[in-house]
Amino acid sequence: MSHIMLPHNANANGSVHGGDIMKFIDNAAGAVAMRHARTTVVTASIDRLIFHLPVFIGNLLTLKASLNATGRTSMEIGVRVEAEDLKTGEIRHIASAYLTFVAIDAERKPTPVPPYRPLGKEAERRKREAAERKNALIAKKKNTKP
Ligand SMILES: CC(C)(COP(=O)(O)OP(=O)(O)OC[C@H]1O[C@@H](n2cnc3c(N)ncnc32)[C@H](O)[C@@H]1OP(=O)(O)O)[C@@H](O)C(=O)NCCC(=O)NCCS
């Protein structure tokens, strides 16, 4: 997904508001999740979001989202955010994020998603790393239960 950054995307400093970028990330990842699940999906968590550089008004913001792994009802989507200076063609890596979406049925209960089979070494690496993040999240949840 690509969007031109306009004045209404600005924060008080004149650069692009982080919250706007977060919404674009959620939308791009949600489209990938829904396209895979072909049913309603909800954002369960944003596992990691790092802003490396600011985005400026007039930049073309491009979000590249891909399915990394599926569980029974959940999907991990990775998003890479890039900003292009349209006058110079310079492209900068702005942020990366991992989001987990869960497919839900008409009663809003988690419902199974088709399994994802990675094709190629890069996709296999992403799937392996997604599994490591999910295991870490489960372990953290267990340790923080009241
Ligand atoms: C996400 C939600 C459907 C999970 O429901 P739940 O009853 O807790 O689900 P379960 O414990 O049965 O887990 C279902 C799956 O979700 C995953 N999951 C649940 N909470 C999660 C979290 N915080 N982060 C990542 N994954 C999570 C589980 O690992 C499981 O995955 P799997 O089936 O692939 O193994 C529920 O918490 C919810 O509706 N949350 C609100 C979502 C929302 O409104 N988002 C913002 C707007 S879209």
Description:
With 146 residues, the chain is α+β, with helices and mostly antiparallel strands. Helices cover 29% and strands 34% of the residues. Strands 1-3-4-5-2 form a five-stranded antiparallel sheet. The structure holds coenzyme A. The site of coenzyme A has 13 residues, from β2 and β5.
Radius of gyration: 17 Å
Largest sheet: 5 strands, antiparallel
Judged by helices, strands and strand pairing, the structural class is: alpha+beta
Helix/strand order, N-terminal first: EHEEEEH
Compute the separation of the termini in Å.
40 Å
Descriptive keywords:
146 residues; alpha+beta; five-stranded antiparallel β-sheet; 2 helices; 5 strands; binds coenzyme A
What's the SSE blueprint?
Blueprint: E1 2-4, H1 18-37, E2 41-51, E3 60-70, E4 74-84, E5 91-103, H2 121-143
Antiparallel strand pairs: 1-3, 2-5, 3-4, 4-5
The chain binds coenzyme A.
Residues 42-45, 71-74, 100, 102, 104, 110, 137 line the site of coenzyme A (COA).
